[in-house]
Amino acid sequence: MPNHASRRTLLTVAAVAAVTAAGAASAAVGPARGPGGPAPDDSRPGDRAPGRSPARHTSGAAPREAMARMSPAELVGQLFVSRAYGHSATEPDPEDAALNQQAFGVRTPAELVARYHLGGIVYFGWAHNTRSPRQIAELSAGLQRAAAGSGEGVPLLLSIDQEHGAVARVGRPATLLPGAMALAALALGSGGSTAEARRAARVAGAELAAMGIRHNYAPVADVNVDPANPVIGVRSFGADPHAVAALVSAQVRGYQGAGVAATAKHFPGHGDTGTDSHVGLPLMKHTRAQWEELDEPPFRAAVEAGVDVVMTAHIVFPALDPSGDPATLSRPIVTGILRERLGFRGVVVTDALDMAGVRQKYGDDRVPVLALKAGCDQLLNPPDLGLAVRSVLAALESGELTRARIEESVLRILELKARRGLFDAPARDAAQDAARVMDAVDATVGTPAHLAAAGEIADRTTTLLANPVGLLPLDPADRPRLLVTGTDPVSPTGTTGPPTAVLARELSALGCRATALPPARAVAAAPGNAAVLVCTYNVPEGASPQRELVTELLATGVPVILVATRNPYDPARLPACAAELATYTWTDVELRAAARVLTGTVRPAGRLPVPVPGRYPLGHGLAYG
């Protein structure tokens, strides 16, 4: 575990102070709305946090009136956001129908919505929900039709984990944008402006809204101060809490200005944990004072920006609650700190309840009840939906949970849906009009303007870390022969990958003669090249195949250019190279930007949002000339 005192010293670096200035100009991308969506409003003042003003509601019963007519089963159903298998609401592939039958006792996603009166559905690639933007929009419309025909006809809140960068469920032809740490590198390099982070969220939100998705599980508000963090890393805006706070605020306003609920996650902070909560229960060792200094500022900023939703973390935080319960199930954390200290009045959603971190201490029948007792509102993706619903209904019947407590959460959920325009007549009518749905997708998703915006943003994120002998920029006019090799992680959704091939292809398009080869062939092929570019990915401490590859390539005498394609900490774990860059993500848009920087087509502008121990300070970044 890294030393906290040294972190606090690093976080006072003056180079980062500029990022704390909020209130950057709004995005250059024009406002867009999906069918029947609310007009963009990303300039909402902080005192208009969720629940502090009446919900906009232009048709049908008001949320309170609709809630009063709900049966216990309908009330409890609104609390749940579940996965559903298949690309279609009513006609899933046979394999997906079988999965739905096995998990839920129904064949189709539409039947699932009707059976459990669900409040929401979350889309995943592995659940086969995200084949293409048009298909997603059709799925969304079909699910909304199912909800309209069930019980009180309350619309669904359709959600997704589309952080961009390392986590993206929807890929091409949708626009893929740089992720959080890349946006932070840009902000540092542009004197602290958060305008491009806000612009990216506006683009992303407009495209999600066109696909019928009105709730995104982004931005990440965790402050990543542990280089070995196995689950956050580049999903965070960085190591400076005030810089992270400014960028979180900007993205909240961007998403919600596009009509999509934003989610600040993972409360109370997951940035200094050595365990992935998907597979274990992380322990956060910060003191209360350290939490207030490092972890609290981004969440406070999100609340002040009017964020619709906050997601809890499945972590144990003894300084905030000594009970040993994960934060998701902790009343002192969810109610005492998030609600009472920070004044948050919006929706609190759990992280996914099928994750190991929340299942270790209590059974799947108790977790949903305890989450509600802690103060959570939405229960995300329980492993056994039927068991979870029955458990909450039983707690309601026994008096362990009162109807008033359930209604408190349901009202927040319904008001959120109303704020995002889901009760409005145009939104409901759009679900019945397939042509309007497709027109919205075609007019918004992956447009030339959005793709151009993604490229412009990415161009300013690449960070030049080292260039001691002036090897860069490469001159395409010389037609340099280049070898590209290294680690090829699975390409993010919808990218053309593998990363080494994407980088080689883009370098060749810019005039170089670049060839991609696997590591097993790279060392023998290195001689005769002007340089070898090595793509690294999360290099571990100590001996590793990536370290061995770099060492062997350096021994050939050919200049080696290190391209850290995910975490920028890689150079600290490798021998020094002739040049070193950080791209923060291995998506096409970032690798194309890196190629432009390597050839001098674009000048490097990014600055490190985190310190690289023993090598580079926070805020470091070089320029050409």
Description:
The structure is a single chain. It contains 21 helices and 14 strands. Helix 10 (about 290-305) links the parallel strand 5 (about 265) and strand 6. The chain is about 40% helix and about 10% strand. The chain starts with a helix and ends in a 27-residue tail after the last helix. The longest helix has 17 residues, at about 240-255. It has helices at about 5-10, 65-70, 70-80, 95-105, 110-115, 135-150, 180-190, 195-210, 240-255, 290-305, 330-340, 365-375, 385-400, 405-420, 425-430, 435-445, 450-460, 500-510, 520-525, 545-555, 590-600, and strands spanning about 80, 120-125, 155-160, 215, 265, 310, 345-350, 380, 465, 480-485, 515, 530-535, 560-565, 580. A six-stranded mixed sheet has the order 9-14-13-12-10-11, with helices on both faces. The protein has a five-stranded parallel sheet with strand order 4-3-2-1-8. It is globular and about 75 Å long. Helix 3 (about 70-80) crosses helix 14 (about 405-420) and helix 6 (about 135-150) packs antiparallel against helix 16 (about 435-445). It has about 625 residues and is an alpha/beta fold.
Terminus-to-terminus distance: 39 Å
Structural class: alpha/beta
Radius of gyration (Å): 24 Å
Number of strands: 14
* Structure annotation, total helices: 21
Mean pLDDT: 89
Strand content: 5-15%
Descriptive keywords:
625 residues; five-stranded parallel beta sheet; 14 strands; globular
Brief rundown of the structure:
The protein has 625 residues and is α/β, with parallel strands linked by helices. Helices cover 38% and strands 9% of the residues.
